[in-house]
Design a protein that fits this description.
alpha/beta; TIM Barrel; 7-stranded parallel β-sheet; two-stranded antiparallel ribbon; 16 helices; 49% helix; globular; binds coproporphyrinogen I
Length: 345
């Protein structure tokens, strides 16, 4: 971590409200950019892109060349962990990921001891980004949270309700716990390595925190995220961590109270007043424009941006979308959004 220059986004994660909210955009390096699609077309598959530092650095920096964003996020994916564990993970042209589903019988074939060695190229990308980025830009590293990663490992692909993984947790509680423990340990090691390689902040993507009852939420979301925060801070004291429990809804207060994250990402379905009431005033929030408002653009987007900024005017706030940017987003709309937030409308 470099403490030398003022980084407005890092300062906000650490609890210092800025005169206007800093901004980054979830999935900001990706398919809505023609220059990303060009690099992707030249690469030998998506994972090859993630594991080739020259290319991964290039696509991490592409959005900052176009827009005055306050952070770069490491270009990688949450599914590099299952790949590093030795599970078969494939990304096929424009489709979501396909994994060979884990069963209680195949769990023992995973190889946690090889994770960091396998991910060495990603850590090299972090080092190169650190050396290249302007001093006022925050470098964000990340990992998927265990439940979200487990839901892909068990289901074999993205799923609207994670039924396969929820059933696995209920039918095979011991195997499930073994998998979660493995993912907690791998995530701690990977995030510590990213921080030591130069990431200023790390984000835990819990993209599938929805569809869980409160008992499952406590076991599958809160407890593993809490253990990751604790494990990372045992090695990197005060490591700045953003948690993004997408779909946490009524569980958000318990999540922020128990996990120890510095800042919480809000999905776009979270009402602004509810978030303001549930999240302690000193805690930074991140979010939460609906990505489709950015696709449509115009007056509706501008009005909502103003509402979001006004709702969090009394606390540290990082502007972001409430989930990842989608490929059909017009680039001019992104430019307009960044300009509006920079003006602090
Ligand atoms: O062929 C391609 O170019 C693949 C498209 C793509 C990209 C650009 C994938 C496949 N992953 C990524 C990059 C990525 N993924 C980043 C890079 C940095 C950035 O943000 O700019 C990050 C942070 C992720 C994180 C990620 N991957 C999440 C969590 C965030 C979220 O959106 O919820 C998830 C769920 C994934 C899995 C994944 N990887 C790729 C896709 C299309 C998906 C989603 C699959 C699904 O629908 O379930």
């Amino acid at each position: 971590m470099s403490a030398s220059a003022h980084k407005p986004l890092l300062a906000t994660v650490l609890g210092q409200r800025q005169a206007r909210p800093p901004i980054w955009i979830m999935r900001q390096a990706g398919r809505y950019l023609p220059e990303y699609r060009a690099v992707r077309a030249r690469s030998n598959g998506f994972l090859h892109l993630c594991y080739t530092p020259d290319l991964a650095v290039e696509v991490s920096l592409q959005p900052l060349r176009r827009f005055d964003l306050d952070a770069a996020i490491l270009f990688s994916d949450i599914l590099v962990i299952p790949d590093a564990l030795g599970q078969s993970v494939r990304f096929e042209g424009g489709e979501g990921p396909i994994l060979e589903p884990i069963t209680p019988q195949t769990l023992g074939l995973l190889r946690p001891e090889r994770v960091l060695e396998h991910l060495a190229p990603v850590l090299e990308t972090v080092r190169r980004l650190r050396a290249t980025l302007a001093p006022d830009k925050t470098l964000i590293g990340f990992s998927g949270s265990p439940w979200t990663v487990a839901s892909y490992m068990i289901g074999g692909k993205g799923s609207p309700d994670q039924a396969a993984a929820r059933l696995f947790a209920l039918r095979h509680p011991e195997a499930f716990q073994t998998l979660m423990d493995m993912l907690v340990d791998a995530s701690v090691a990977y995030l510590v390595a990213q921080l030591l390689a130069g990431a200023d902040v790390v984000q835990l993507f819990e993209s599938w925190a929805l569809n869980l009852d409160e008992v499952a939420f406590a076991r599958q979301v809160i407890e593993p995220n809490r253990r990751i925060v604790e494990g990372v801070r045992a090695r990197v004291p005060k490591a700045p961590i953003i948690g993004f429990p997408r779909g946490a809804a009524g569980n958000i207060a318990a999540y922020v109270a128990a996990t120890g994250v510095n800042a919480v990402g809000l999905d776009y379905a979270t009402p602004l007043g509810f978030a303001a009431a549930q999240v302690p005033l000193a805690m930074p929030v991140q979010g939460n424009l609906d990505p489709l408002r950015l696709v449509a653009g115009g007056a509706q987007m501008e009005a909502r941006v103003s509402q979001i900024i006004a709702a969090f005017a009394d606390r540290p706030h990082i502007f972001n979308l409430g989930h990842g940017i989608v490929p059909e987003t017009p680039i001019e709309h992104v430019a307009r959004l960044v300009e509006l937030v920079k003006r602090g409308v």
